[in-house]
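TA notes, week 10

Several of you asked for a full example with nothing omitted. So below is the full record: structure tokens for the whole chain, then the designed sequence directly under it. When grading your own attempts, check the secondary structure regions first.
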């Protein structure tokens, strides 16, 4: 009886174990099937993703092209708007040009010219046939405005340039020679800078450079004219046979005045013009005064040659003074060495010849008085 019960209990446990195994096998099979389905889905998903990528790639490129095209369209519309502005605002700008820089105000006038030039450059870059008429109007307007600006430059410069000054006033009081007011040089510098950068002037010499030399050149030569004349007149002694005494000729004062007024003028030039233009313009501005100096030196040289026995020392003095003038100006400005050397050449040659003549004359006098 006990054995039967034990066998029955063992059989029940086996049945329960088999049932659990069957359940596990069933779940394992379902898991396997589910895994296969997941793998299949992943395969489909990967294939779909690749297809989407293949489709999205061209779409992305096309989107970028469309964005670029949109930006280009915006830029074209903006350019068209800018091109319309000159025609729309031309009347306003023309009114400013018509009244001129003094009535319109210098800053306002210069800003107007810059706007006109900017409009002209934009239209020229667009190269649209529809703009040709407006461009012709702009060129006419800019040309007229530039001409007015040149006249303004000349008027402002003349207003600050006296016919001449008295150099002795500055030399005797050891004062610096006058320069143009800073406000004037600032305005003139802006005019020069604008005209130099203007596309209609580019490639040509700035007209205000010539205007400057034409106005300031006569002022320099007129201011030094009396001292030039004094240098010649003081060479003529009351007693023609008297020996020349050092320092009695006016050439020293003349050279000192020339150095002072030239240095002040160089300062003016540098305040208005760029370094590329200032050197040449400075020489051009000083040309008339240097021509007068050359004439003075020639007259002195002729006098010295005519009175070599008594006035040869004047040749040495002129040579020394003008050599110092040339060296000082070159050191301060880097200019005028060549023209001053040319001015000095005749009297320097006379000084060299006079030394031999002086030695020969001394020898002759010695022989005349030599006791035999």
């Amino acid at each position: 009886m006990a054995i039967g019960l034990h066998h029955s209990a063992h059989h029940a446990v086996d049945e329960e174990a088999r049932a659990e195994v069957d359940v596990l096998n069933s779940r394992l099979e379902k898991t396997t099937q589910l895994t296969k389905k997941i793998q299949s889905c992943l395969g489909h998903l990967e294939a779909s993703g690749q297809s989407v990528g293949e489709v999205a790639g061209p779409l992305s490129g096309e989107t970028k092209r469309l964005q670029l095209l949109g930006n280009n369209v915006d830029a074209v519309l903006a350019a068209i708007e800018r091109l319309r502005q000159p025609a729309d605002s031309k009347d306003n700008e023309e009114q400013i040009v018509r009244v001129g820089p003094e009535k319109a105000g210098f800053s306002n006038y210069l800003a107007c010219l810059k706007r006109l030039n900017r409009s002209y450059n934009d239209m020229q870059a667009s190269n649209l046939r529809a703009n040709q008429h407006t461009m012709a109007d702009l060129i006419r307007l800019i040309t007229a405005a530039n001409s007015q600006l040149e006249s303004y430059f000349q008027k402002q410069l003349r207003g600050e340039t006296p016919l001449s000054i008295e150099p002795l006033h500055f030399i005797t009081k050891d004062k610096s020679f006058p320069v143009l007011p800073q406000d004037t040089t600032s305005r003139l510098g802006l005019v020069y800078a604008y005209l130099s950068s203007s596309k209609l002037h580019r490639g040509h010499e700035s007209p205000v450079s010539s205007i400057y030399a034409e106005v300031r050149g006569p002022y320099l030569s007129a201011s030094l004219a009396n001292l030039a004349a004094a240098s010649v007149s003081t060479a003529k002694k009351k007693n023609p046979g008297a020996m020349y005494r050092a320092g009695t000729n006016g050439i020293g004062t003349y050279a000192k005045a020339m150095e002072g007024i030239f240095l002040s003028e160089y300062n003016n030039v540098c305040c208005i013009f760029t370094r590329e233009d200032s050197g040449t313009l400075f020489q051009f501005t000083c040309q008339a005064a240097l021509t007068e100096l050359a004439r003075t030196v020639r007259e002195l040289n002729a006098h010295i040659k005519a009175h070599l026995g008594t006035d040869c020392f004047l040749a040495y003095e002129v040579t020394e003074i003008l050599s110092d003038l040339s060296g000082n100006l070159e050191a301060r400005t880097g200019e005028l060495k060549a023209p001053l050397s040319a001015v000095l050449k005749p009297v320097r040659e006379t000084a060299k010849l006079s030394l031999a003549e002086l030695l020969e004359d001394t020898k002759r006098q010695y022989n005349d008085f030599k006791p035999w």
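Residues 45 and 176 are 93 Å apart (CA to CA). Use that as a sanity check on your answer.
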